[in-house]
Amino acid sequence: MNKFTLLVSALLITSPFVLASDSADLEIGMAIDQQLSVVVELESKYRFTVGNEGTAFDYIIKRGDIEADIPVSWFVGVGGWAEWDDQFGARVPLGVKVNFHDGWNAYAQVHPELNLYKGPELQIGGALGVTYKF
Fold first, then answer.
1. 16: which residues sit within 8 A by CB, 6+ positions away?
2. Pick from 39, 40, 110, 122: CA 20 to 30 A from residue 25's CA?
């Protein structure tokens, strides 16, 4: 693991807890994103992911309801990722989020990625997660 990846990881792990001290909108959960991952979402805009394979950060640009009567919404964001083997890049998460029980949410996303390690390369990724909103 290089110094850049270690620094990014430390920031991603500690930042949510510092920012969450004044925030009333905090979600914590597990996901399959960077393999098995811990997910922290703040203010329904900032998603931090740290997992077995690497780390990722997504900024959710836009959210919307699919229908007013059902608890399903869509989202679009921009973000970046870094793997422990030095690969890194940018991604655009496109997904849906479901509130399936009081405080419990599930999300699924697909994210086109631009891998910038050893030259630009387009690829596609995805994530499935479950979070609890405090």
1. 26, 40, 42, 46, 48
2. 110
* CA nearest neighbour of 37 among 133, 134, 126: 126
Residues 110, 96 contacting (CB under 8 angstroms): no
Q: Which residue has the tokens 């989202």?
A: 75
| pTM score | 0.80
Instruction: Determine the residue type at 105.
Output: N
**Per-residue DSSP letter, 10:** H
Distance CA 42, CA 58 (A): 11
Rounded Cα gap, residues 95 and 109, in angstroms: 4
Q: 15, 7 in Cβ contact below 8 A? A: no
Element (H, E) at 11: helix 3-19
Give me the tens of pLDDT residue by residue for the chain, a chain 134 residues long: 554 555 455 555 555 554 545 545 999 999 999 999 999 999 999 999 999 999 999 999 999 998 878 899 999 999 999 999 989 999 999 999 999 999 999 999 999 999 999 899 999 999 999 999 99
